[in-house]
């Protein structure tokens, strides 16, 4: 890997930002330490997630996703919206969460995120329980719902987002033994049947400006609890996503994606941190 210059694109979806690398043209053996080094905002490029676009035998392209902490994850809704922008056309994408279809919708990008899963072993949880109103909670938080939308989410519906210490509770819940693969934590406030405000503590990344899969999981949980009806506008710190879902169907997510700039990464400069 020494002496290698690596082209990349910097992209974001509602401020959830990515370094995107095309490994079809530039093969790269990614490791956790190298992903952390690239994602470092002081000594690397800086991003919430590192995205690798590769060849696929089942779809137009494959996508691998690495969080800021170097862990590889199954899905990222905001990153999925960036793929057709990066590739230059509508695409079927192979991910660890399955096949996802993404395409331009005017100035926005729409993604079919597939069917949500609700079984306790599909989340996964450490033991069997109802996932619509989990008989578990943390301090004064209400009983949450759990949804897998390609990655695991737990959703708390609150009366007042500002009254909750999310920075303390987010990592506490993420690492709770109830979640053997850790979990993304959504703190939601239903404003009306078609509008939800949301803040997400992302597994392996912490707070981000937006979380596409978190918006999907929250809208689905709200519809299941009859707190909302689709389509639902989900307002995150970085902006709005529109999520639609009906029981038995797939989730559609629509929102913006932005290509900010292209650059070249000197892997030698990352070698001490990248291992």
Explain this structure to me?
By secondary structure, the chain is of the alpha+beta class. It has helices at residues 32-39, 77-87, 166-174, 212-224, 267-274; strands at residues 5-13, 16-22, 49-54, 61-67, 72-73, 91-95, 98-105, 108-114, 145-148, 152-157, 184-192, 195-202, 206-207, 232-236, 239-244, 251-255, 258-266. The mean pLDDT is 94.
Report the uncertain regions. Answer: none
Number of strands: 17
CATH architecture identity of the largest domain: Roll
Please bin the fraction of helical residues. 10-25%
What is the global morphology? globular
Radius of gyration over all CA atoms, rounded: 18 Å
What's the short version?
The chain is α+β, with helices and mostly antiparallel strands and 275 residues long. The protein has 2 domains: 5-110 and 257-274, Roll (Diaminopimelate Epimerase, Chain A, domain 1); 145-249, Diaminopimelate Epimerase, Chain A, domain 1 (Roll). It has helices at 32-39, 77-87, 166-174, 212-224, 267-274; strands at residues 5-13, 16-22, 49-54, 61-67, 72-73, 91-95, 98-105, 108-114, 145-148, 152-157, 184-192, 195-202, 206-207, 232-236, 239-244, 251-255, 258-266.
């Amino acid at each position: 890997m020494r002496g290698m210059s690596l082209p990349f694109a910097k992209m974001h979806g509602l401020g959830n930002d990515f370094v995107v690398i095309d490994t079809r043209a530039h093969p790269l053996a990614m490791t956790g330490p190298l992903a952390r080094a690239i994602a470092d905002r002081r000594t690397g490029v800086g991003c919430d997630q590192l995205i690798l676009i590769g060849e696929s035998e089942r779809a137009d392209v494959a996508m691998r996703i690495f969080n800021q902490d170097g862990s590889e994850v199954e899905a990222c809704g905001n990153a999925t919206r960036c793929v057709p922008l990066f590739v230059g056309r509508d695409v079927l994408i192979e991910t660890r969460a399955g096949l996802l279809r993404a395409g331009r919708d005017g100035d926005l990008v729409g993604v079919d995120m597939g069917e949500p899963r609700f079984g306790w072993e599909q989340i996964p949880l450490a033991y069997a329980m109802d996932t619509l109103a989990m008989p578990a909670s943390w301090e004064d938080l209400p009983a949450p719902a759990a949804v897998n939308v390609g990655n695991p989410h737990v959703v708390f519906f609150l009366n007042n987002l500002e009254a909750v210490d999310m920075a303390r509770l987010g990592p506490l819940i993420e690492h709770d033994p109830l979640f053997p693969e850790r979990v993304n934590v959504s703190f939601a406030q239903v404003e009306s049947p078609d509008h939800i405000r949301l803040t997400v503590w992302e597994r392996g990344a912490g707070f981000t400006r937006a979380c596409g899969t978190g918006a999907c999981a929250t809208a689905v949980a709200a519809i299941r609890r009859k707190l909302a009806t689709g389509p639902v506008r989900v307002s995150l710190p970085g902006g709005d996503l529109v999520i639609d879902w009906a029981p038995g169907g797939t989730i559609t997510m629509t929102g913006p994606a932005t290509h900010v700039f292209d650059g070249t990464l000197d892997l030698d400069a990352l070698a001490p941190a990248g291992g």
